[in-house]
Amino acid sequence: MTNITTRATELLKESYGDNSAFREGQLEAIQAIMKKEKTLVIQKTGWGKSIVYFIATKLLREQGSGPAIIISPLLALMHNQIEAAAKLGLNVVTINSNNRDEWDEIYANLQQTDAVIVSPEKLSSPDFIEALTNLRDIELIVVDEAHSISDWGHDFRPDYQRIVRLLKTLPDSIAVLGTTATANDRVIEDIKAQLGHDLNVFRGDLMRHNISIQVNPVQSKAERLAFVTDALTHHPFLSAQQGIIYCLTKRECEDVTTFIQQHDISCEAYYSGVQNALGESIEQEVLERFHTGQTRVIVATVKLGMGYDKANIGFVIHYQLPQNLISYYQQIGRAGRNGKPALAILLHGDEDEEIIKSFIDSAYKDPSLLSDILKLIANYPKGLSRNEILQHFNLNVTKLSSVLKYLFVHEYIYMDKRKYVINPNETFDERASKKLQQQLNDTRIAELDNLKRFVNYDGCYMQYIANELDAPDLKEKCGICKHCKGRTFIPTREDNPYLEQATAYKNKLHGEIEPRKRHANNKKLDEALRYMPGWTYTTDPYSPIGKRFMAERANQHYSEKTMITISNFLAEHIQTHQIDTIVPVPNKRYPALVNELAQYIAREHGLNYVEALDKTRPGHIQSDMHNSIMQEQNITDTLALNESVEITDKNILLIDSIVNSRWTMTVAASLLLQQANAVYPFALVNVGG
């Protein structure tokens, strides 16, 4: 082992300077890899886990081994890893969705590369598996963010189960290295159960002694916007730093970004699928501008949470609660990776818990549902497509896709000619699945409860997190958080100069209602039966005015203040589009609510008020219908045109209290347009995601 130690130290100094030295545990982990041991490294962010596997890769290549295979979850992380590898003179390639044009060339030259970085999703690609099979002398497989292997991990990903299956097909002579900053005792035991109980665990201290945590009291969204803008503009530390603001949803990322940009702060939104005005993906461009310092602040979902490595991030602000404490630790770990002081500010509001609970619900894999889907597919020897399966279940497309992926990764089903087919070699155990899923769901709820306790905690914040992670150094206090220091780093100002603007901004998040172009079965919707683009007063049900609208809806009566607000908002639209008639969407549960509002608007603007639509029977609550097929059918079955009224050639304002899937507006408009000239939909609140 002396030669390995000497050579590893030489490589470190050649790459990082003569004064460089291994941190505690790095050299030991490299030695374990060289002995072909299964190894799990649990170290805090910024510790240098990539140094371990890249130096090990270099050593193995010098001994004649084939390329290392590094499985990494995020494009952002791949970018960082290639930069780190270059310091050691390693030729590293990545295979991902952004470089499809290069795949053939990469596959042809894999044997000459030092390492290949792939996402776990690529392990389902026949082309990649074939290329992997043809590689000679592979001696190292790295699983980055290894907590994702475990169902119990805070960021479990079904695709990581493919790694476990892959490793079982490889010889024991191949070294396996897993790395993570976020594995508590339960996750470690689960990883051992999957990778082998001979797993060599290197676990270091997890306390971050350069990140000062502050948790604010509950604030409205407007108060949080004002707080963030004031801090980024005037606080001596934050105003001079680059940083990340985390939000729970894509829409919130956009809303926060727009307001901050209005105050001359360099800021961009980053999330999966972010596009420019032309509809082109700009994920990489946004990340590159932040990485090079062109953009000062990036407002992101958790897509930027895991593994992103930029040394000089000075702050992380959570605009909303994270999903759990371990995710929070992962995300604040983006800050202060250069060892310099950094701030982590946690903001939160009343609506956050509801959003997180919706995430927990969507992650739950109901065993009876899994069993029913398998039974359905089993009845079709040639298989079923996703949309064919969707017709049988009250699920949205995202949920069904998640369930099918779970069944596919666990090999209960397979794909044949784009159809899901039963795998006769695997048997689904509904009872065992029910026990596991219930345990997982209970754990997620317990994690949420623990997060709520953390928000109200009056001791050392970092110590509280370390306890959640079962960290070796949990007895220490960080000494630099809000409670350890006994002071608030960025106070909330009662005279915040941005509060009035933020409130006005949140109250004027008007939106558009775009027409659907196809039926739920994907057949083209007759253009003559499509409504014109319409409007919503607010896209945020949690904004001050959104909360008021929703409360009044629940009480089945809109106040005079609301009626005046809506009437004034619609005035220009009514005039511009020569609207002459207003039609309320009928609702048996709220029979007078929209009708009274429509009558008021009709009087104010001299419109014809016509109850041109009849609700033939109550039907299901539309929000309980979770996919387009059932949403469209639910309205089609319960709505009819009132033949006794005259709307021929009218320009109609079709009004409802809320809009979500747009199917109510779509079906209602198609009925009206059998006679009317044009239909413009309007709803007070867009409650969609």
What does this structure look like?
With 689 residues, the protein is an alpha/beta fold. The protein has 4 domains: 2-203, 3-Layer(aba) Sandwich (Rossmann fold), CATH 3.40.50; 211-350 and 444-504, 3-Layer(aba) Sandwich (Rossmann fold); 357-431, Winged helix-like DNA-binding domain superfamily/Winged helix DNA-binding domain (Arc Repressor Mutant, subunit A); 508-686, Rossmann fold (3-Layer(aba) Sandwich), CATH 3.40.50. The protein has 25 helices and 23 strands. The strands form 5 sheets. The protein has a 7-stranded parallel sheet, covered by helices on one side. A 6-stranded parallel sheet has the order 8-13-12-9-11-10, with helices on both faces. A 6-stranded mixed sheet has the order 16-17-23-22-18-19, sandwiched between helices. Helix 1 packs across helix 2, helix 9 packs across helix 20 (499-507) and helix 22 packs across helix 23 (593-605). The protein starts with a helix and ends with a strand.
Provide the CATH top-level class of the largest domain: Alpha Beta
Judged by helices, strands and strand pairing, the structural class is alpha/beta
How much helical structure, as a percent, in the residues? Answer: 40-55%
Number of helices: 25
For this structure, the quaternary state is single chain
